[in-house]
What does this fold into?
Amino acid sequence: MQPRDLSANSPYVPGRGVEEVARELGLDPEELIKLSSNENPHGASPDAVAAIREHADGISVYPKASHTDLTSRLAEKWGVTDEQVWLSPGADGSIDYLSRAMLEPDDDILVPTPGFAYYGMSARYHHGEANEYELEKADDFVQTAETVLEQYAGERIVYVTSPHNPSGSTMDLDDVVALADATADSTLVVVDEAYGEFDESESAVSLIREDGGGASYADTRDDIAVLRTFSKAYGLAGLRVGYAVVPEAWADAYARVNTPFAASELACRAALAALDDDDHVEKSIESARWARAYIREELDAPTYPSAGNFVLAEVGDAEAVCEAAQREGVIVRDCSSFGLPACIRISTGTREGTERAVATLNDVLAELEQGVHA
Ligand code: PMP
It folds into this structure.
């Protein structure tokens, strides 16, 4: 017995965990700073943790009320109908639901390169294929409608990541509109705003709200969907809860494609509490904005502008820099797997963690430079 031919499906490679690295290096996990997975350095919202404790006894029943309550709360937050909010296990789950709802076998999707690997993986699970549009390093990974349209060939789904992982660049809403206008009626533009809270600009949800987002975007669109997550600004990555906001015109497709009880009881309860914990989310956003500015100012390497909770830096040999920094207890992301072997991605940490990471990386960069010239 064998599974079907999975050779086209490459496994997802996550950032390395603290426990794993500590064990390998014989270090105390407490001494390590992990800035490789864009997690929240302030942890989860304390109110979310309290909600999990409070509702722990409720996990013997399926999450019906909490699922409904979270959906309604999100619909209210965004000014959309309940049907337009598709809860899922992480934003990853929403990518799968959109694949299920949109893709026939052999349909293509269009994704950015470098970019987030799961878009293509999900399409392949659904017997589709991923084509790529390039974001140019030389242009600071700028994202315009033209960058995408140059490579567009009628794909069923076009992914835009804004803020973009791993570069931190964004696409203006005017360009999202221009892109959706220029693509075929059968093409869905998915704006992945997993890092949206850290960006100051307006969410693409305003393009599909009932009121069309006010005067500037008067039409409610049926060809744009938006992804959001509780994993980043809300600090709930371990719970796996995210959602898509989709056009009203076909929002009822959720009932036909979702895995029943898509988000768990505790995930829903925690997310509900986190949405009301303004202090935690504001602190998280403020701290990420401070840290990304600090990294760009203080790191002795060229960096790219970022609207996310991470900064991409040009370091020459990413593998060597990551290995040397790791030996000093600082874990950052080697971007070779994104096709950027000269770049590292540094997630924003606490004030102390960010300062230590930058100091360590500067030492490593100086040493490697000496090594090269020796
Ligand atoms: N989109 C992007 C661009 C991401 O970087 C990530 C997580 N790394 C996700 C979506 C998925 O996040 P989650 O499933 O944790 O919500």
